[in-house]
Amino acid sequence: MRILRVAPWLYPDTKGGGDYHVHAMSRDQAAMGHDVTVLTTRADESLPRIEETHGYTVLRVSPGVTLLGNDVSPAVARYLWHADGDDFDVIHAHSHCYFVTNLTALKARLGDLPLAITNHGLYSQNAPERLFSVYLRTLGRWTFDQADVVFCYTEVDRERVRDLGVSSRIEVVPNGIDTERFTPEGAESELIDAEGPVVLFVGRFAEGKRPWLAVEAFAEVLAAYPDAELYLCGDGALRGDLEAQVAELGIGEAVTFLGHVPYDEMPKVYRSGDVLVLPSRAEGVPRTVLEAMASGLEIVMSDLDQVSSTLGDRGHVVADGGDESLADGLFAAIGGSGETSEQIAAGDHRWTDTVERTTRSLESIAENNP
What we know:
Shape: globular
Largest sheet: 8 strands, mixed
Strand order of the largest sheet: 3-4-2-1-7-8-9-10
Number of helices: 13
Number of strands: 16
Helix content: 25-40%
């Protein structure tokens, strides 16, 4: 099968759960014998325009103009316009939140290539929620409707997409992780040196992730647990603001900014921690949460319906404006003991299952394309 995968960003050009998902899916489908090309925008002008890596082809084009974290790329439009059944059997786009996926929907509408769209999370982490709600019920719904199949991680997200009025076929394919690498047993990371409780934040420093809430809550925890430490894995536009916040709160000695941590190091980082905190206002089913669960950590996160059901005994869910604060969740996590969440993650979220089920669906729409 000849797959054209379309995504705004790709790991390791950029670091994020969705970016890694695109890379790993392409790598593993190529290993299965499929011909995979990833069309993406060039995050850095020094990167090659065409590259063969991990068995698949990367085609990087100019991002054009960036609006609200969204690349409006005429180069993507030009490439899609000329792509046809002589080149590819199917297009697989990632996230309806981006202009490149809107373009794949237009291609499907006007052309003859079947289209699959993976919903990595219904709401954008960059655009204002009210504005994005309007988008979802207009252009977003239209984009979904052009797809031969829409992949959702959970039944909750499937229902939310259907509630928009989307008529396309929807399949639930859980997000997965490498459950052989992310386990409680194994070496710990030399990046983390702590005597007391270790709280981890793993993710981009972006508005939608709300990392400042993690810092704020940790400051309260530190008053009760003076030997506690917070390690922030990631980077982004808010780093300067977060560093200023840490300084203003006077907790600099207990907070470490690790920057981007190589993916191969992350299993050791999780094993070195006690709690993962994720205060996001919007997510799909974050890879970081699944990886932390499989590694045996407690989870403290905002109340997201599509994620809460996967947390098991180690989950501490905190609703915005609720009676319990994020700091309360951290106190409960540090003082509590979950028992089975790593088994839940390993049993229901194997990456090999994600790849196999996705590939079977792509094959089915390619075979049914007249």
